[in-house]
Amino acid sequence: MDQLYREAIIDHYKHPRHYGCLEAPDYKAHDLNPFCGDELTIEVKVDEDEIIRSVAFNGKGCAISLASASMLMEEILHESLDEVKTWTREDILDMLGIEIGPVRMKCALLSLKVLKKGVYGLDQLEEEELD
Amino acid sequence: MTRNLNGRAVAAAGETLDWAAVRSQFPIMERKVQGGVQLVYLDNAASSQKPAAVLEAMARYYRTSHANVHRGVHTLSEEATALYEDARQNAGRLINAPSSRECVYVRNTTEGINLVAGSWGRANLGPGDTVVTTVMEHHSNIVPWQILQADRGFDLRYVPVTPEGNLDRDVFGSLMAEEPKLVCFTHVSNVLGTVNPVAELTAEAHAAGALVLVDGAQGVPHLPVDVQALGVDFYVYSGHKMCGPTGIGLLWARRELLQAMPPWMGGGEMIREVTLEGSRWNELPYKFEAGTPAIAEAVGLGAAAEYLMDLGMDNVASHSAYLTNYAYNQLVEIEGVHILGPGPEDRLGLVSFHVDEVHPHDLSAILDLDGVAIRAGHHCAQPLHRSLDLIASARASFYLYNTESEIDRLAAGIERARRIF
Ligand SMILES: Cc1ncc(COP(=O)(O)O)c(C=O)c1O
C-alpha cells in the first residue's frame, strides 16, 4: 500500500497543482489512454527565451496518472523547453518514486506523452521511447 | 428458494449442488498471490477460469491424438477429426442448436460478429438499409457495423439505455418502424449485468422484417440458452468466458442464412473444388472455416460445454443469481458506492460500480494488494460509459467457484480504499 500509494501521490491526486486552463497557451496538447479512457490536457506558456512561465493541466484519471501530471507541472515550471525535451520515462518514475507494473505504466506516462506532444507540436511522439 | 430471476426459482448457495466440490475442480483456485494471500478471482466477465476436465481434455488431445483434421486417412487424423466434431456437437448442444452443421467455429465472439458483418452484411446491406444495435453493446457489436457502414453506406441506429439500465423499449419500437434489415443486441450486458428479454425483442424485430443477431458472450456462461426457443437468427459466444480456452468460440446461424452467405475467408478446408478459373465452396460449416483450425481449443470448448451441461445450466444460473444478489446487497450498503444498472432481480453475473473519490484503477490496484482481482476501466463499452457520464467503472463478476466470503473480502477492500483516499 505505502509503496503503491505513498502520501505524496495521494496528496497530488486530491490537491492537484496547476489544475485548470491557461488563457492563450503557447503549447497545448490532449491525449487519452485508450485502454482505460483516462484523458489529459496540458497547456504551457513560455517567455521569449523559451522558458516555461506558466503551466496548467486538466483531465480525468486515476491517482497515478493525475499525480504524475501534477508533479510534472511543478517540475517543469521555470525550466526551458529544451530541458523539457530531455525528460524520459525514468525521470517520471523517479519523480513518482513508486514501483509501477506494466499495466499501469501507461497511466504513469500519460503526462509526459501529452507534454511532449504539446512542445514538439507533433502528433507522433516517439512511441517507442514511452513503451 | 429465495428470489426469482426471469421467472426461475433461485436457490440459496449450496442448495442445488455441492459448490465447494465444484470449486475444487478448478486448480487455479489454490493460487496464492501478493506473497501468500488466497486469490479471489472476480474478473470472470473478462475471462473465466478452467476446470481440470477442460485442461485434461486439451492435454490428452495433444499427448495422444494430435494430427490435422479432415485431411489424412490415418489413425491420428481420424481421432483428431472425431474429437473436433464431437466438440462441435457439445458446443452446439449447449445452446440447443438444431444441427452442428449450423455451428461455425470462430476465435471468439468478436470474430463471430465480424464474420456475420463481413459475409452476410457485405452481401445484404447497402444504401437505404438500416441496422439497429444498442448503446449497451460491447465494442465488438458496434465497431464491425461501423466499419461495414463506412463501406456500404447503410444507416446505423442505436437503441439507448434507460436510467434503470434497460434497453429503451419505446425507442426500440420506433426503430422497428424503420424496417431495419438486422437488429443486434447483447443477451446480458457486460457492464450493467442487464438480462435482455431476447425472445420478446426478437419477436418484435421479426415482426418488422428484421433478422436478429445476439451477442451471447455473457449469456452462455450463466444462463440456459435455447436458440430455437429464443427464435434468433444468429447467436455468438466465446469459449474462454464459459470455462473453455481462449482462441475458440461458436457462431450459430439458421441454416438457410449460412447457405446463402458467401465465404468470409478463402483457403484450405473451405473449398469443395479449386480450379485456376475459380472455386466452389465446401458444405456447412466448413465453408466458413478456412485453414487449419484451433483443434485443441475446440476440444477444450466441447469439454467446457459438457462440463456445464453436467452441472446443469439451471443450477449454474441459480448460483450466479445468488452470488450476484449477495454482492449487490453487500455493495449497496457501502457509503460512497454507486452501482450501475438494474436491481438484483434483473441482472446476472456481475456488479459494476464507482466509488466516490476513488478512481476504478486505484480501487483495483488496492484490491489487488489483498489478492482480489476485479476489472477497472470502460470494459470495451465506451458509448455506454459516456451515456452514464463516466469514463470508467469497477466491475466484480462472479462464476461457479466464487463464494460469499470472497465477496465479503471485496466489500472489506472497498472500505479500505475509501479510507486511503
Ligand atoms: C457482451 C460481450 N460481448 C463481446 C465480448 C467480446 O468477447 P471476445 O473478446 O471473446 O471476442 C465480450 C467480452 O469481453 C462481452 O462481454
Please write the string of helix (H) and strand (E) elements of chain A: HEEEHHHHH
Overall shape of chain A:
globular
The largest sheet of chain B is:
7 strands, mixed
User: In angstroms, what separates the terminal alpha carbons of chain B?
Assistant: 40 Å
Shape of chain B: globular
C-alpha Rg of chain A (nearest Å): 14 Å
For the record, the CATH architecture of the largest domain in chain B stands as 3-Layer(aba) Sandwich
- How many discrete domains of chain A? 1
The hetero molecules present are: pyridoxal-5'-phosphate
Brief sketch in words of this structure:
Chain A is an alpha+beta fold. Chain A has helices spanning 7-14, 63-76, 81-85, 89-96, 105-120, 127-130; strands at 27-32, 39-46, 52-60.
Walk me through what this model shows:
The complex is a heterodimer of chains A (131) and B (421). The two termini of chain A are 25 Å apart. Chain A is globular. In chain A, β1 and β2 form a beta hairpin. Chain A has one domain: Sufe protein. Chain: A (Alpha-Beta Complex), CATH 3.90.1010. The mean pLDDT of chain A is 87. In chain A, 42% of the residues lie in helices and 18% in strands. A 7-stranded mixed beta sheet of chain B has the order 6-12-11-10-9-7-8, with helices on both faces. Chain B has a 4-stranded antiparallel beta sheet with strand order 15-16-19-18, with helices on one face. Chain B has a two-stranded antiparallel sheet with strand order 1-2. Chain B has 421 residues and is of the alpha/beta class. The chains are: A alpha+beta (131), B alpha/beta (421). Chains A and B meet through α1 and α2 of A and α12 of B.
Give keywords.
heterodimer; A: 131 residues; alpha+beta; Sufe protein. Chain: A; three-stranded antiparallel beta sheet; 6 helices; 3 strands; 18% strand; B: 421 residues; alpha/beta; Aspartate Aminotransferase, domain 1; Aspartate Aminotransferase, domain 2; 2 domains; seven-stranded mixed beta sheet; four-stranded antiparallel beta sheet; 14 helices; 38% helix; disordered N terminus; binds pyridoxal-5'-phosphate
